Predict the structure.
Amino acid sequence: MPDGECPRCKELLDEAAVAILQHVRAVGQLESARLRRDEAAATALERVVREASLKRENAVTQYHHHHATHGMAKSGAA
Ligand SMILES: [Zn+2]
């Protein structure tokens, strides 16, 4: 079955896309807080960025791990 039709791939890819978006958005908010010299917001956002970064890495890793199982399953089929 083609990669695009695996529901688990789609699900994991969606999760990764959301996690990436949230990380990028948090980084943008942190930068704007720093530009405003808003120390309190910047400190809080630093933690948000760190957590979002971990979540992003986990989501991308999960997708890659799952996707790799397809490659093994259909070796030689291409
Ligand atoms: Zn899949």
The chain has two helices and no strands.
